[in-house]
Amino acid sequence: MKRRAWLWMAAGLPGLAVAQSRPRVVSVGGAVTETVFGLGAQDQLVGVDTTSLFPLDATKLPQVGYARTLSAEGVLTLAPQLLLASSEAGPPPVLAQLRRAGVRVEVLDEHHRFDGVLERTQRIGALCGREREARQWVGRLQQDWAARPKPPAGSTPRVLFVLAHAGGQLRVAGEGTAAGAMLALAGARNAFAGVQGYKPLTAEAALQAAPDVILCTDQGLEAQGGVDGLLRAPGLTLTPAGRARRVQSMEALLLLGFTPRLPQAVAALTVKLHGGVA
């Protein structure tokens, strides 16, 4: 009898180990949630934030609010063991409160680099008990990155990224931003290089930047009423891009999220900004 009981317990240990290494997860940040799904760990998700829009199944999960304005009560209601969060998650006192409540809080940042996306993928794989899946996916990402189209030789358009929201002041992206990093990866020059962060758009600044192309998100372009609405913003219509109506846009999470779709995002942006590739 004792031998049978011992054998039963031994047979159960691998499954028990897997269960213990695959915690209940709340994911905060669109790229983080997308990575969890890509690793096949979506069955561990008990909640996500409102920026978790891809894949569509993520939007059907219980929500804990906006990434920057989390509440400890909203998260703890879902009884997670692990909170996976982007660097924008907060506020910090809430994260500290969750830690005190016994939730493991892991803040993940891709640092606006492709290698950072790989590191984040491997880290989430380890935290969710999906190391093998992470290794395989990293290999595929590296292949996709190597195969992405390269900008034509000598083509370095000056691009002005405009961050637009309904009813809000338009801002332009300088250095240290996701938009600035994406422009560099796509072989373009940031028309606001030398400026740190996001700054309000002014007519004087737009004219001085003299962009060849204006770039924004699909959501921002829609909020401004399309190309015509965007070009009514201070100074834009008088720039080289405005006069030629060279305005491009991409879906916000794909363009700025540094998600696991980064190779596809950079490939699409390269084509949009250079009008084709060699």
Largest sheet: 6 strands, mixed
Spans of at least 5 consecutive residues whose pLDDT stays below 50 are 1-19
Arithmetic mean pLDDT: 90
**Radius of gyration of CA atoms, rounded to a whole number:** 22 Å
| Helix and strand element order | HEHEHEHEHHEEHEEHEHHHEHH
In terms of structural class, how would the helical and strand content be classed?
A: alpha/beta
Alpha carbon gap, first and last residue: 73 Å
Counting H and I runs of at least 4 residues, what is the number of helices? 13
Shape: globular
**Percent in helix:** 40-55%
Portion in strands: 5-15%
| Total E-strand runs | 10
Note the main attributes of this structure.
alpha/beta, 4-stranded parallel β-sheet, 13 helices, globular
Walk me through what this model shows:
- The protein has helices at 2-21, 30-38, 72-76, 92-100, 114-127, 131-147, 178-185, 203-209, 218-223, 226-231, 240-244, 252-256, 262-274; strands at residues 25-28, 45-48, 82-86, 104-108, 158-163, 171-173, 189-190, 198-200, 213-217, 247-250.
- The chain has 278 residues and is of the alpha/beta class.
- 45% of the residues lie in helices and 15% in strands.
- The longest helix has 20 residues, at 2-21.
- Mean pLDDT is 90; it is low at 1-19.
- The strands form two sheets. Strands 5, 6, 7, 8, 9 and 10 form a six-stranded mixed β-sheet that branches. Strands 2-1-3-4 form a four-stranded parallel β-sheet, sandwiched between helices.
- It is globular and about 55 Å long.
